[in-house]
Amino acid sequence: MSPTPFLVLSALLFSIGAIGVLVRRNAIVVFMCIELMLNAGNLAFVSFARQVGNLDGQVAAFFVMVVAAAEVVVGLAIIVTIYRTRRSASVDDASLLKY
Amino acid sequence: MIAFWTLAPIMIICAFGMVLARKAVHSALFLAVVMISLAILYADQEAPFLFAVQIIVYTGAVLMLFLFVLMLVGVDTADSLIETLRGQRALAAAAGILLAVLLILAIAQTTIGTVVGLQRANLDGNVPGLASLLFSRYVFAFEVTSALLITAAVGAMVLAHRERLTPKPTQREVVLQRMQDYAAHGIHPGPLPGPGTFARHNSVDTPALLPDGTPSELSISRVMRARGTVRSVAGEAAGPLQIEAPDEESEGGEE
Q1: pTM for the structure as a whole
Q2: Total CB pairs under 8 A between chain A and B
Q3: Which of A85, B66, B143, B236 has an alpha carbon within 20 to 30 A of A8's alpha carbon?
């Protein structure tokens, strides 16, 4: 099976994730949308790995997973810290750096 | 092939559900479906190692972390519907759709050569193949990854750590405070009654019955009362003491 359908699916998932990041206000849901975008990228990596016929794409997907895991840990810790001081998980409320 | 055409619609629907769900917990569950489907697609594309890692790391660890933080931060923090920038949502949605159209057009207009497949690369097995790549060509990136992981762990601990600003009250101070509250405001110094005591059910949504048969407000969590999920005990509150037949009593005890 040619990788084109997989790439189209990956593009759609990436766009849906991007819409979510732009539209949602809850910081945790924004984070989930970022995860969706990273996963869409992984799907493209894996599809291209099969198309090209070597495992480098799968190694790249593996590294993306590692970085995503680290990012989730730090990001959620930041969300918890912001929630503790401001009692809100909305991205609109954390705007103090503006002033 | 079948796996793809079955899973692709499910994934798209669940991704939209994740973006559109009002409650963050529902978003997390939709994301779980997308990630498990992705794992199956990886298995379909000759990536068994990534299939396992996807399930273990994403649906196992990352989503658990998400749900854990959701419970910590408050499940019912709903999204505010007030737009801080006017028309931002519509514009964002339009931009996202444009991005999708652009990407799909780009993919459609690209000619991709014949599929080589991974039969040769996976000749020794997928995991040994990945390992030999990781520890030869990508060994530096692999080492940097370990530094990243340890930095992330330390950073999360520093961020989530909270300094105690006031000294911890001793047991003696707690007791004195309770007795003072009782003397000044009449607050009951003992523990609160547990739910379900002397009621028909012992679940947490059943208020305890006081000796006169009325339900005790203190025995139910404030959250459950606010959500209106408290079970009514009007039928069970017998009022004056009745002596029941022994077989009925054993039936009630089993529930």
Answers
A1: 0.77
A2: 233
A3: B66
